[in-house]
Amino acid sequence: MARKIHTLAGYIYEYQRSVLDPEAFWTQIAETFYWQKKWDKVVEWEFDTPSIKWFTNAKLNITENIFERYLHTKKDKPAIIWEPNDPSEPNITLTYRELYEKTCQFANALKNNGVGKGDRVIIYMPMVPEAAIAMLACARIGAIHSIVFAGFSANSLSDRINDCTATVVLTSDGNFRGAKTIPVKAVVDEALESTSTVEKVIVLERTKTPVTMKPGRDIWWHDAIDDVSAENVAETMDSEDMLFILYTSGSTGKPKGIVHTCAGYMVNCYYTFKNVFQYNDEDVYWCTADVGWITGHSYIVYGPLLAGATTVMYEGVPTHPHPGRFWEIIDKLKVNQFYTAPTAIRALAAYGIDPVLPYKLDSLKVLGTVGEPINEEAWHWYHDHIGKGRCPIVDTWWQTETGAILISPLAGITPTKPAYATLPLPGVQPIIVDNEGNELKGNSVEGNLCIKYPWPSMLRTIYGEHERCQQTYFSTFKGLYFTGDGVKRDEDGYYRILGRVDDVINVSGHRMGTAEVENAINEHPKVMESAVVGYPHPIKGQGIYAFAICDMSDRSEENLKKEIRVTVARIIGPIAKPDLIQIVPGLPKTRSGKIMRRILRKIATGEKDNFGDTSTLLDPDVVTKIIESAGTAS
Ligand code: PRX
Q: Fewest CB within 10 angstroms: 152, 195, 373, 562, which?
């Protein structure tokens, strides 16, 4: 097993080695994989354009590094344990052998339906084993998957299909989410009315929700695999061929298709999974994310399976049918490593400890968090009541763009500190700069978090928009990758992520671009203009606060707010609905027409004065008016 760190001294040694000679460091990890052909160069890079290549000219298939690599030794080991939404439905275990056969069979089914290497396949599915099988089958034949979280609207789905000109959509008749059944096939049908590239839709039967199947286009999953061989020779992929595209929000209205490539992503996901969670061969690991987000890609599917681990996939929500559901599953499946989001911890902590008490939770060894800063109170609740004071918490900082965890404790090996992501993993070179780009050296400093040296799983481009990739990540601070996060390095050298410094709001660990939400709000015919900011929310971390100038002539305020929320849910999805809407007479703008969000952010947090210099505002009185009516936000 490659480079598993066992001691603090080992971490320090590996870290130093990785900085002194990154190529030797990553070579040693990469050597443990199965390559059809090895690389000519470990890394070739420059951050100006940018151009980043890892393991150049190597040939591989990521699925061979999951299946062919492990079938001799782990064929009967559970690869995926799937836990359904409804606890009375039996769970399903797929061994490495079974997952391999299902992957190969579905890979052949995709081929039979015209999918080839390089084609884009949209996955819009529930959290069922078939979602993982779909990803792996795409990877097997070299098709590029792009998963769209199944909570996104038809409009968001069609935008993504159009952006990557996908030819196939994989979906289900419906999704079970808690007490609800969501008719996802109907959403796909609606989305496809505004697309022209999709030739086939493969539909998994999950909820038995009635659906319309369009002849020639729509085909049932069970029919697609009927009588199809479970043998498939993996496609030969170049190290830098695309593995997947995953859309994420940015500070402009249009989501960015983040591109990850085969070899670097594989090596980095595996290495971080093994080391951060300290996974041992018999362990059962559970990450509660959805495969629609990067966490689901890297730490439900690819990372654990590349490490030959047993990974749990849960279909449902934390509170259904009761708020002890997570803890019940941990006991039932004897979960050893548990990885979730601070928002889930806060939501469950709000029920008190009664729902936790019936469960032993004694299988747990490691707890993890991801997606947003964790507040100290939630950290202690998690540590004391779930980890019973015995389990280290790995607060893992990373991004869709980074592909894998970059800053985090190694469970039980390096120190933890409440609310701190602590130290960079080996191979990661963070740097803190001020707004002018000057490096802030030493400890006890606060500034913008950048990375100065490439790591294998970093994004390569934004699909079809390389220039935007350069602008967004590589132009703010010359020669550096800019994360968009603010950070503090404390007196001990530990990193604490302070949150976004750009126009991105982190709602329950999900990224929302303010411009994206504003565009959606402005679609309502009675809205003239709007501005959206984040504000502290006790459960979600950040909530969405919308200030809107509206024509109120023929609506009650209450009805208008309802309609605005429905509009946002229709355009983006329910996750983007504003928590608070305030109808305002105007917005604080500079003479050049720029909205001063700084002021709105303060109003949203309840401040009534200390707005700094407002003399550049076109109409300073508007601020007073907004403050006066702040109580009407609802
Ligand atoms: O602001 C940081 C926050 O989530 C952003 C990345 O969001 P996304 O691409 O959706 O990926 C989330 C899952 C990796 C980051 O820019 N973030 C992520 N992890 C943490 C975090 N903030 C604080 N602490 C973390 N552990």
A: 562
